[in-house]
Amino acid sequence: MDDIFKALADPSRRTLLDLLYEKDGRTLNDLCTHLQMSRFGVMKHLRILEEAGLLTTRKVGREKYHYLNPVSIRQIYDRWVSKYAEPWVSGLSLLKKELESEPVMEQKPRHINRIAIKTSPEQVWNALTNPELTSKYWYNGAIRGELKAGSPYEIWNPQGQVQAKGEFLVVEPPCRLVMTWQLLVQAETAEEKPSRLTWEIAPHAGFPGVTLVTVVHDEFEEAPHTSRVLEEGLPIVLSGMKTLIETGGSLTS
């Protein structure tokens, strides 16, 4: 948390976050055109923001794109805002505007969330695939299905209703899980075509005993309502996973 507040203390870094808020997935060249400083200076500020967990990067071909990481901001909200505020202000935690109408590069990821958890990749994988654990942080949803590529899965709520469904596309424990995603609990999302979730799990390069969990949501061009729901919901899911693994509790307990 200290690294986050230190990163936010610099006005140039806040400007970079504002630019990513206006339009996510920007290149270094794009960001440099908006700041009166050297390319090296912008790179330095971006590195500090990434190390603080406030942004993430993805390479697409030769280009490197920068994205806001709403999970870190969500943690600030959970720690410093939510306990003082009324429930109706929860919408303030949204970090990005709707950009579905703007053209994007083919294969360019749109929503990227990342969080660091003090645990092993194996424990994260277990939390992600064990229905007894997913029901404790994934909006009470228990995942059910044979864990192999090409197999269908469903997520059930305690009332015996299917909240979501899809197919496992890639199963590589404990490093990578790719799955299609169709949200059924809302009429407007249930009618949309499936989108895709990619879970990437890897040991943190700089901190032994810490695992980085990255979730990429893409292929939602024909699922705009699902996109908006997951844009807000995935940071909460990741924060809930972190709380469960590190403390054994939930965000609401």
Spell out the blueprint of helices and strands:
Blueprint: H1 2-8, H2 11-22, H3 28-32, H4 39-51, E1 55-60, E2 63-68, H5 70-81, E3 111-117, H6 121-129, H7 131-137, E4 142-144, E5 152-156, E6 162-172, E7 176-183, H8 187-190, E8 195-203, E9 211-218, H9 224-247
Antiparallel strand pairs: 1-2, 3-9, 4-5, 5-6, 6-7, 7-8, 8-9
Helix pairs in contact: 1-4, 5-9, 6-7, 7-9
CATH class descriptor name of the largest domain: Alpha Beta
- Kindly identify the CATH topology of the largest domain: Alpha-D-Glucose-1,6-Bisphosphate, Chain A, domain 4
Reported CATH architecture of the largest domain: 2-Layer Sandwich
Q: What strand line-up does the widest sheet have?
A: 3-9-8-7-6-5-4
Helical segment tally? Answer: 9
The secondary structure category is alpha+beta
Number of strands: 9
Number of domains: 2
Protein name: ArsR family transcriptional regulator
InterPro entries: ArsR-like_HTH, ASHA1/2-like_C, HTH_ArsR_DNA-bd_dom, START-like_dom_sf, WH-like_DNA-bd_sf, WH_DNA-bd_sf
Organism: Brevibacillus gelatini
GO molecular function, one term: DNA-binding transcription factor activity
